[in-house]
Design a protein that fits this description.
CATH class of the largest domain: Alpha Beta
Number of domains: 2
CATH superfamily of the largest domain: Glycogen Phosphorylase B
CATH architecture of the largest domain: 3-Layer(aba) Sandwich
Pathway: Cell wall biogenesis; peptidoglycan biosynthesis
Keywords: Cell cycle, Cell division, Cell membrane, Cell shape, Cell wall biogenesis/degradation, Glycosyltransferase, Membrane, Peptidoglycan synthesis, Transferase
Subcellular location: Cell membrane
Function: Cell wall formation. Catalyzes the transfer of a GlcNAc subunit on undecaprenyl-pyrophosphoryl-MurNAc-pentapeptide (lipid intermediate I) to form undecaprenyl-pyrophosphoryl-MurNAc-(pentapeptide)GlcNAc (lipid intermediate II).
CATH topology of the largest domain: Rossmann fold
Membrane topology: Peripheral membrane protein
Helix content: 25-40%
Largest sheet: 7 strands, parallel
Bound molecules: uridine-diphosphate-N-acetylglucosamine
Strand content: 15-25%
């Protein structure tokens, strides 16, 4: 029996691909282990998969800026490498698949020390810091955007496309309407700030709601602890986060306002939802979302509004314009050819395993 060790975490975006792969491994009779952090979102997301053995290791943030924590973090990372090395030596996986995030770096190094092959997946157009550190230890780097190859050692890059969770296509608009108690005929605007919410978008939506409510019914995924009870409109429904109900809400949405996290935007693309993207700025992230959004804009899948230009009025104007041209966006998205990404990833992981078959 083949054994795979998965890793990745820190935000939902770094766990989604791993979760989508688990049923594929199960189908082939592989055993699956996961190394994540003690308190990260990956622990909660993996917990329902009872047949996946979860191991936690110490993690330190690999900070891009100076701060007193910097002094402690190298020790935490070193401890994480030691723990990951020991877990991998004991569990003896045939291959490690890493999705990125801080927790993945010690795991990749631990795998290399045990001579276990490593395959990496990158969701964004340019590789994140964790993946950049891990790439020298990996056999192959799978990319979501074709452009990413320019940022990598050519021999290692494999363009596989985006993994979109199967259940997202199974949503029912009617159930979404019942959940939100939307009874009007007006179009539905879905606002999604990424897995952690987006404070600046939430504040601007609050200021723009007077105008937005005239044309849309609005469902707003605000992020944990970010629902503002003072925003009250008859057809405005805020939630902190949706899990099982998300497919139904997506099915009901006519257009979407979102950050430009890679998983989210490929989900909207696969469901043909015209999108207005407000990418995280270079200061908030590393500029990856700006590049993700720019690539989608060039393909004609979205409009982009930079955060510095976002006011209540520019936001409402952009959303009205997007809705008015929704058919043109949809027909361009129809042309996008969805690759069989999950299968390609599985095959690459299988080929890298010490005991293929
Ligand atoms: C702040 C930060 O570092 N963001 C990064 C993080 O974003 P983040 O984790 O927000 O990433 P994504 O947009 O890629 O993924 C969010 C995921 O959460 C799901 N979801 C969201 C809201 C909700 O209520 N329910 C729900 O299920 C979405 O469907 C999606 O699958 O990883 C992405 C992929 O590497 C990067 O592009 C982002 O720059």
């Amino acid at each position: 029996m083949n054994k795979v060790m998965l890793t990745g975490g820190g935000s939902a975006g770094h766990v989604t691909v791993n979760l989508a792969l688990i049923p594929r491994f199960r189908k082939e009779g592989w055993s699956v282990d996961y190394i994540g952090s003690e308190n990260g979102i990956e622990k909660q997301l993996v917990a329902p998969h009872e047949d996946v053995a979860y191991h936690s290791i110490s993690t330190g943030k690999l900070r891009r800026y100076l701060d007193i924590q910097n002094m402690k973090d190298p020790f935490k990372v070193a401890k994480g490498v030691f723990q990951a090395y020991r877990i991998i030596r004991r569990r003896k996986p045939d291959v490690v698949f890493s999705k990125g995030g801080f927790v993945s770096v010690p795991v990749v190094v631990g795998a290399w020390m045990n001579r276990v092959p490593v395959i990496i997946h990158e969701s964004d157009l340019t590789p994140g810091l964790a993946n950049r550190l891990a790439i020298p230890f990996a056999r192959a780097v799978c990319t979501t955007f074709p452009e990413t190859e320019q940022h990598l050692d050519k021999g290692k890059a494999r363009y596989v496309g985006a993994v979109v969770r199967e259940e997202l296509a199974k949503g029912r608009a009617e159930r979404g309407r019942m959940l939100c108690e939307f009874t009007r005929q007006k179009p539905v605007l879905l606002i999604m700030g990424g897995s952690l919410g987006a404070r600046k978008i939430n504040e601007t939506v609050k200021a723009a709601m007077g105008r937005l409510a005239e044309r849309f019914q609005v469902v707003h995924l605000c992020g944990k602890g970010q629902v503002d009870p003072s925003v009250r409109y008859p057809f405005y429904r805020p939630f902190e986060y949706l899990s099982d109900e998300l497919p139904d809400v997506l099915a009901m949405a006519d257009i979407v306002l979102s950050r430009a996290g890679s998983n989210s935007i490929f989900e909207f693309l696969s469901l043909k939802k015209p999108m207005l993207l407000v990418p995280l700025t270079k200061e908030q992230s590393r500029g990856d979302q700006i590049l993700n959004a720019e690539s989608f804009r060039k393909s004609g899948f979205c409009e982009v509004l930079q955060e510095a230009d976002m006011t209540a009025d520019t936001l409402a104007d952009s959303l009205f314009r997007l809705y008015d041209s929704r058919e043109a966006y949809r027909s361009r998205m129809e042309q996008y050819e969805q690759k069989d990404t999950l299968e390609q990833l599985f095959r690459l992981i299988q080929a890298a395993a010490k005991k293929p078959g």
